[in-house]
Amino acid sequence: MTHAASPLVPVAASVPTPAQAACAAPAATAELPTIDPALDAREYFLDFEGYRTWIAVVGDEAEERERGNLPLLLLHGGPGACHDYLESMAALSATGRRVIFYDQQGCGNSDQPDDPGRWTVELYIREINAVRAALGLERCHILGQSWGGMLLMEYLVTQPDGVVSATIASSPASMPQWIAETGRLRADLPADVIATLDRHEAAGTWDEPEYEAAVNVFYERHLCRVVPSPEFDARSFRKLARNPQVYRTMNGPTEFHVVGTLREWEVLSRLDVVDGPVLLTSGRHDEATPAQKAAIRARIPQAEWVIFEQSGHLSHAEEPDRYMAVLGDWMARAETGRVRRRADVTADAGLRDASSAGPGRLTGRPGPA
């Protein structure tokens, strides 16, 4: 990387400018902490293009160097959610690597200016580079979940240096395909639920409790199949509800009613330039359906693809033990050159079938079939 690093300022020592203070995230409360205190994270603000990006680091850099491991940078979903629902990934710090969370601007603990025109793919690509430069992440693994994986694919086609492996978790590469597939899943909902969704979407009454209850029927089937959802996942949704501007600007009101600036987005046609190691993960009941993951794997033939049998869209939260085992093994193999690059794919060793992660253990009561 050639980007100049900006200094990181510990959160406790940060003094926002008047402009930053005016758009700072709502103050954390006991109900909505910046990050789970049990993780013993080091929290920082990074000045990025006039506003602050919040970063948290879990794990010890000295131990990482001693073991010869590399850090994992996480890109959260939404767009407009925040890092909280990824906090189960902190378990990977026990393998002797740093796990790095950050809230994209407009989200969570980062500054949230009232500026819908600011929220673009290009802004968030620049933010990845700024975070990497500030932390000195010359070589690292990157995982993007949902929208984070969409962003990661956009980042990979810029052919950045030092990405030792990329994990694209439950992400589409074409929003028109996503809309078609989530529409198909929506059509399988009970008739009364569909009628409620139709009525409120036509009226634009997305904040009505009746609409939110109907949306939750879809979410319990395809978003998070653990009922109730894990605390860190629910916390992320509560933070999103405080300020949904990024989500509604770029996506829309729900996962399946996409009316935002990303509605025609696709990166699928540009993935041929991705030549490094790639892992695809998805849930058996995922709204990122097998058809969407297969389309990505066809464009990135070196990719490995693992399906988590009991999960929806959040395998890392629904089946965390199995997910961390798969991801930990993947990163260890990438660090020792035991994963494929595009040049390794030949006529005799082409696309690999998706593999099953096997029966994992859900973190709670399963949702509806």
How many separate domains make up the residues?
1
Task: Give the SSE order as H and E letters.
Answer: EHEEHEEHEHEHHHEHHEHEHHEE
Find the CATH topology: Rossmann fold
Return the average pLDDT rounded to an integer: 92
Features:
single chain; 369 residues; alpha/beta; Rossmann fold; 10-stranded mixed sheet; two-stranded antiparallel ribbon; 12 helices; 34% helix; 15% strand
Describe this structure in words.
The protein has helices at residues 18-22, 61-67, 121-135, 147-156, 175-186, 191-203, 209-222, 231-242, 245-250, 290-299, 315-318, 320-335, and strands at residues 8-10, 42-48, 51-58, 72-75, 99-103, 140-145, 163-169, 226-227, 278-283, 304-308, 355-356, 365-366. It has 369 residues and is an alpha/beta fold. The chain has one domain (8-177, 263-366): Alpha/Beta hydrolase fold, catalytic domain (Rossmann fold, 3-Layer(aba) Sandwich), CATH 3.40.50.1820. Helix 3 (121-135) crosses helix 4 and helix 6 (191-203) packs across helix 7. The chain is globular and about 60 Å long.
Indicate the topology.
Elements: E1 8-10, H1 18-22, E2 42-48, E3 51-58, H2 61-67, E4 72-75, E5 99-103, H3 121-135, E6 140-145, H4 147-156, E7 163-169, H5 175-186, H6 191-203, H7 209-222, E8 226-227, H8 231-242, H9 245-250, E9 278-283, H10 290-299, E10 304-308, H11 315-318, H12 320-335, E11 355-356, E12 365-366
Parallel strand pairs: 4-5, 4-6, 6-7, 7-9, 9-10, 10-11
Antiparallel strand pairs: 1-2, 2-3, 3-5, 8-12
Helix pairs in contact: 3-4, 6-7
